[in-house]
Amino acid sequence: MSVKTFGELFWSNVDKLLEENKKGLKDISRFLESDPKKADNLYHRLHRSRSEGTNPSNIMGGGIYSYFKQFDEFLTVGYMYDDLDEE
């Protein structure tokens, strides 16, 4: 088993949650930004972060967490980093 970075683990769990809820990154960007142009820019930043496997900024991460909270009120931030191999 390969060791994942925080970013890779975060995005892996985000992808699982998106698939479970039949949603996509565009849904998250529209939830966080009402202006279509800003939502498109945010989508591209989210997509780049996911593609590179980098941890999103605290603001972006908090927004993603808030988005998923609407589907599961008991979701915790720690869940986004489940399966992290701590040594």
What string, H for helix and E for strand, traces the elements in order? HHHH
* N-to-C span: 14 Å
Strand tally: 0
Shape label: globular
Low-confidence stretches: none
Our count of helices gives 4
Radius of gyration: 13 Å
Largest sheet: none
What percent of residues adopt helix (DSSP H or I)? Answer: 55-70%
Content of β-strand: under 5%
Average pLDDT confidence is 84
Oligomer: single chain
Structural class computed from helices and strand pairing: mainly alpha
What are the SSEs and their pairings?
Layout: H1 6-20, H2 25-32, H3 36-52, H4 58-69
Helix pairs in contact: 2-3
Q: How would you describe this protein?
A:
With 87 residues, the chain is mainly α. The protein contains four helices and no strands. The protein is globular.
List the main descriptive attributes of the protein structure presented here.
mainly alpha; 87 residues
